[in-house]
Write a structure and sequence with these properties.
Layout (H helix, E strand, L loop, with lengths): L7 H28 L5 H7 L2 E4 L8 E6 L2 E7 L2 H6 L33 E5 L10 E3 L14 E4 L4 E3 L20 E5 L2 E4 L8
Antiparallel strand pairs: 1-9, 2-3, 3-4, 5-6, 6-7, 8-9
Length: 199
Amino acid sequence: MADQGVDPGRRRFLTATTAVVGGAGVMAAAIPFLSSWQPSARAQSAGAPVTESISKLQAGQLLRITWRGQPVFVVRRTEQMLKALPGQDARLRDPNSDNPDQQPAYAKNAHRSIKAEYLVLVGICTHLGCVPLFKPEVMAQPFDADWSGGFYCPCHNSRFDLAGRVYQGVPAPSNLRVPPHRFLDDNTLQIGVDTEGAV
């Protein structure tokens, strides 16, 4: 009769206490482990929207902004630049920006922007990720005798027009991407937030 000296109440108490202490230990170990899965403050701030003043951006100029570690180009186009856009359609791979991954719906138009005057693009070539050069001059270039301004990628000679649309016969497969963005007012651009409810 080995069970005669065993107190069943004490056994239940010790079992319950061990389970509670063990559960608390598991929770104490799990909280830091699960917290390590959360993005760091630096990573969260890198993905946060970026607000930038465009009040000093002159017609024909480009402003570079960093968003999510990527360069974003903001170009204030002139009337001449906008008038030149339709004349390039026959030379472009996707003149109507039919690929929905290239821009939000509010930028699927002839100028690929919310406001025709301002172009907002992720400044990364869609071929192998180089950063294209801004070449706004309407003049013959070594890479294109009929150049009407736009972006030129020196890595593998991809070319994009002043709406970020890719030319035919170049390595880049698609247009430059338009990031989500909105105008908070006439002089303030926010990148990383869609335009719904904005100016």
